[in-house]
Every structure is written in C-alpha cells, then in structure tokens.
Amino acid sequence: EPKRKAAFGSIGRRIPYRILHVINQDGESLGNMHRAEALKLMDQNDLKLVLLRENAEPPVYRLMTGQQIHEEQLKRAKKKKESPKPGMVQKELSFSSAIAKNDLETKTKQIAQWIEKKYHVKVTIRQAK
C-alpha cells in the first residue's frame, strides 16, 4: 500500500523523531531540540506541533494555534482547487467586444467543442477602442 501524504494539521504527541527543528508561532526559529523539550514547550504555550518538512535533517515542526492550522488548511485547499489537475487541458480564447457576428459564432462553436471534450475553457473579452 503506497504511503499517503498526511493532511496538514496537528500531529498530536506521536512524533517519530528524537531531534526536531522547531519554529514558533511567529515564524522565528527556536533551533534544534529534543522531542520531549518540544512537547513541553507545546503544552506550556497551549499550542500544537505541526510537521512542515519531513525530509529535512532534522525534520521541521512549527508551533501553531488551532486558528493558524485552520487558516493554513483553507489556504492549501484553495491552492489545490485552483491548480489544474494533471492531464487536464486548459484552453484560452480571447476576443474583442467589437467582434463580427460570424466570428463570434465560430468561436462559440469552438468553445462548445472544447467543453464537450471536458477541457477547461477561459474566455477573455477585451474592450474595443
């Protein structure tokens, strides 16, 4: 079974690494510390530890509030939704507001064909001078 990437969020108290690089909630580096020290800091400040970069040496964790975690999850979800899917074709069509009727019909047919093929279509209309 392939290893799934964990969702962004608090990892609780189960930290598989002994030495961690910790960043506080303001983004300042607190340096490398032992797992027990990081957990104590987490409890003292009523924060949650979140894994940022697992493949760094040592792994990077950040202390965050629940609100910060929620905002980051929303930001990542929005970014993922906006990025085109692999294999997804995006077509773009641009025309002037002073387009001739037959040109408009031709471009409309083209857009309909792309939509049938399940392409994402972006239409830009420029204002005529």
UniProtKB/TrEMBL annotation:
Coiled-coil regions, chain positions: none
PANTHER family in UniProt: TRANSLATION INITIATION FACTOR IF-3, TRANSLATION INITIATION FACTOR IF-3, MITOCHONDRIAL
Heme keyword on record: no
GO MF annotations, alphabetized: ribosome binding; translation initiation factor activity
GO biological process, one term: mitochondrial translational initiation
Protein biosynthesis as UniProt keyword: yes
The name this protein goes by in its record: IF3M factor
Family per similarity comment: Belongs to the IF-3 family.
Species assigned in the record: Thalassarche chlororhynchos
All residue ranges annotated as the Translation initiation factor 3 N-terminal domain in the record: 11-78
Gene: Mtif3
Origin superkingdom: Eukaryota
Matching InterPro entries: T_IF-3_C_sf, T_IF-3_N_sf, Translation_initiation_fac_3, Translation_initiation_fac_3_N
GO cellular component: mitochondrion
Alphabetical keyword list: Initiation factor, Protein biosynthesis
